[in-house]
Amino acid sequence: MQTIVDLALQKLRPQMSVSLGGGRNVLALTEELAKQPSKNLKLYSPSELTRAYGQKLGLEILASEQGRHFDLAFDGCDSIDYQFNCLKSKGGIHYFEKRAAQKSDEYFILTPKTRLNETLDAQLALSLEVKLERCFEILAAAQQLGLRAEIRLGQAVASYARTPLGNVLIDCFATDWQQIKDYNEQLLAKPGVVASSYFEGLVTGIIASEENGQGIIFTR
User: Which InterPro entries would you find in this protein's record (predicted)?
Assistant: First the structure.
């Protein structure tokens, strides 16, 4: 993890506007940034947890929606392929993370190299953020595409998981993700679907840690 953080720090220049996503590596980077106030960075995050952690460390981290443009964005992922498409399915802030990525000149994923593979991990869901009133229509649409789909449950008793926008999450599964681009496009076109966990064409670089502890940077 420290290797990833060190490589990420090398990308930073004073006065930069930077978005920090979520995940353990991003939190470790946030810790290091708190030790380097001289860089005078403008920090933002789509993650409520990252913002709260930064505040605990004495950093001012604004919501990413308050920033118009980012020089750099760092984020984590659950799986990424050799074309730099990734799945960020275990969380539920895809809408805000994707908007932050779109506003960034460079969007780097911080990840163990084991998550970088030829194809995306089929054990992970294609997750959809959906308006509650449309959720059963979207479930049916996903099933018509041959996907197994289910509404994600929350931690509270008899409740659905909710996004920051108050929407529900539908997790879709396939035997493999060879056709994930088509699935994603068809489902995003359905009324009521706000965002998905599939990030296509947004990642510009990967900072990865190998099993021997070494770090490596991949760029387009």
Answer: NagB/RpiA_transferase-like (IPR037171), Ribose5P_isomerase_type_A (IPR004788)
Q: Is the pLDDT of residue 1 over 70?
A: no
pLDDT by residue (tens digit) across 124-141? 999 999 999 999 999 999
Cα dihedral sign for 62, 63, 65, 70?
Answer: positive
Which domains does the chain carry?
Answer: 2-118+199-210 (3.40.50.1360), 126-196 (3.30.70.260)
Which phi and psi (to 5°) does residue 201 adopt? 70, 15
CA 163 to chain centre: 14
Q: Strand pairing of 215-219 and 205-209?
A: antiparallel
User: DSSP readout, 69-100?
Assistant: -EEEEEE--SEEETTS-EE--SSS-HHHHHHH
Predicted TM-score (pTM) of this structure? 0.94
Cα separation, 80 vs 159, whole angstroms: 31
Residue 37 structure tokens: 């106030």
**Contact present, 73 and 100 (Cβ < 8 Å):** yes
Structure-token pair, residue 138: 């979207």
H/E element holding 117? strand 116-117
Contacts of 97 (CB under 8 A, 6+ apart): 21, 22, 46, 47, 75, 88, 91, 199
Q: Would you mind telling me the total number of residues written for the chain in this entry?
A: 220
